[in-house]
């Protein structure tokens, strides 16, 4: 398996891109499409006319959602093949760039954006703390960064549902090794082909330290649950009503003149 660095992440997601984009277009990624994605979209509020940076945009799901709501969107991703899919899907009016998120501040001038988003991409970055600092630099003073990550309490190195006698019913989630930092591999099965990607697990304390060190103020933390409508559409989301799968940070960039 490639090293968990920028080159390794690029290689993993380039390989995954065709299956991922196809599966997402077919609705397979329903945790994102019907659960935490709509929740994060609602958290963004009114984005019309705002310059918005989508960090780790992948095949463009969140970029398109923000464009549809009137934002002037720039999406960046480390995977050239993912950006290919984002551009092919469109629509015109979204700017997509192949870029390592840790180099955002080298590509864009300071205070270029009113808002930034990251829809479950920061934990895929080898250096999230560096990315947070880069995002803070390109946001205008007081700008917002709304970022969803896998919840550190439920995405530990050991994670397994205890199932009932029918081998299907989920009774409780067993987790362990919370304080063990590292990149956790996940194999995506039942897509057009299997692929493996990795996500960085660290403690909640570490995420908050990175956030504060970047100069952000935490406006809110949210732990979304599926709506009744989502559960009717996708009953498989029931497990997410019992365990916090995702954590969304709503952050404010430093005011003008603040140290970063």
Strand order of the largest sheet: 3-2-1-4-5-11-10
CATH superfamily: Vaccinia Virus protein VP39
Q: First CA to last CA: what distance?
A: 36 Å
The CATH architecture classification is 3-Layer(aba) Sandwich
Radius of gyration: 18 Å
Structural class: alpha/beta
Kindly state the mean pLDDT as a whole number? 96
The global form is globular
| Helix content bin | 25-40%
* SSE succession: HHEHEHEHEHEEEEEHEHE
Sheet with the most strands, sense and barrel status: 7 strands, mixed
Description:
This protein is of the alpha/beta class and 260 residues long. It has a single domain, classed as Vaccinia Virus protein VP39 (Rossmann fold), CATH 3.40.50.150. Helices cover 32% and strands 28% of the residues. The protein has eight helices and eleven strands. It has helices spanning 6-25, 30-44, 61-68, 80-89, 104-107, 128-138, 204-213, 228-233; strands at 51-55, 72-77, 95-98, 113-119, 139-150, 158-163, 170-176, 182-188, 195-201, 217-222, 246-252. β8 and β9 form a beta hairpin. α1 packs parallel to α4 (80-89) and α6 runs parallel beside α7. The longest helix is centred in the N-terminal third of the chain and has 20 residues, at 6-25. The protein is globular, with a radius of gyration of 18 Å.
Which features does this protein show?
single chain; two-stranded antiparallel ribbon; 7-stranded mixed sheet; alpha/beta; 260 residues; 8 helices; 11 strands; globular
Please give the structural blueprint.
Layout: H1 6-25, H2 30-44, E1 51-55, H3 61-68, E2 72-77, H4 80-89, E3 95-98, H5 104-107, E4 113-119, H6 128-138, E5 139-150, E6 158-163, E7 170-176, E8 182-188, E9 195-201, H7 204-213, E10 217-222, H8 228-233, E11 246-252
Parallel strand pairs: 1-2, 1-4, 2-3, 4-5
Antiparallel strand pairs: 5-11, 6-7, 8-9, 10-11
